[in-house]
Amino acid sequence: MFRLPLLGLAEIAWRWTFGVAAAAVLLFSIREYLATLPVTAGEMLLLRTRQPVLVLQAVARIFQVSAPRAVTAFAVLAPGLGLAWIIIASLGRAATLKTLIENFRGSYHDIRLTPLLALNCLRAATFLAATVGVVGALLVAQAASSPDDPSPGGVLLIFWTLTMLVGLAWLLLNWYLSLAAIFVVRDGASTFAALIATTDLCRSQPGSVIAAATCFGVAHTAMFVVASSAAAFPLGFADVLPGGMVLGGVLLVTLFYFAVVDFLYVGRLAAYVFMIEPPPVTPQPQSEDDILSDIPGQT
What we know:
Blueprint: H1 5-35, H2 41-48, H3 52-104, H4 113-143, H5 152-187, H6 191-204, H7 206-235, H8 243-276, H9 288-293
């Protein structure tokens, strides 16, 4: 993180490039979708009443008519953004791991993009499965309550418990697939060979793997707490400062948090690469007494 700061900047470059592009596409799509919403004179009358119940009825009627178009737009955007992320993430990870492995080993195998693409496809699939799992958790939680016997507390408890379990499973799988990318770049391994090598690493060095994940996880959590506290500072002046300044302050803190997190991610990758490919030990020069002790008859 400190010896190769340009590597952290490279990580920021490819991540933020995709993030900015994806945000621009989503904002443009939402703007175009809202511009095509049909609003009748009766719905405008309900909106102008400023009564919460009437306004909600008008909004529900407006979006009910255009719901199929929203579903169609999502069906086009989601696969497109997913495919773009798979390609950009594979290229970005190949570049950063190449530099890391060269730093420890001095050489690397020819980079095979196909296994990296496959690993990132699996990561995208796990994210999709996690999203479906959260929706399933919501449905299961709703089934625990009925109109005759409502239990909002039980619904909330079931939903958050199942969501936390789904999130934990997704985090573990995403970490496992991210770690496998090291073996693809280091050894030129195939997708399944990289997954097997990752399993062997976790079995042979469980303490080191857990220690690295824990240390960087604690640092990540601490940075999140610091960033949350810092973001509360401009929000405290929301009644005094213009909205643009408050939003700019929160955005600046958010970008700083993301930048530090990207540097921490590179540091964690370097820790794993160090476990797999430790730097060679430079032999220490022998003293005169050590040389004489190796000669027969010398004491």
